[in-house]
Predict the 3D structure of the following.
Amino acid sequence: MKKITAFLLTGCPYCRNGLKAYNELCEKHPEYKDIPIDWIYEDKKMEVADQYDYYYVPTLFIGDEKLYECKPGQGIDQIRENFDRVLQEALT
């Protein structure tokens, strides 16, 4: 199982949708709860966020590889699909 590093921003509506999607996915796939995720709020841990290459949040990495970076205008369905894809990758 691989560890995910997730970058979020306090008050971000896309991040709220990302967390909502994550919780929905965990209800559907309980095995996702076992995946180690380091939830980093960039406004609270700027020194960590500055070490990664991304612009929009939420953004998900496994190791140094960026697997998902939300784009403006993405709805919860697109965010959920991408979170699911990254969570599946973390299980392998």
In short: The chain has one domain: 4-91. The domain at 4-91 is CATH 3.40.30.10 (Glutaredoxin). The chain is about 40% helix and 20% strand.
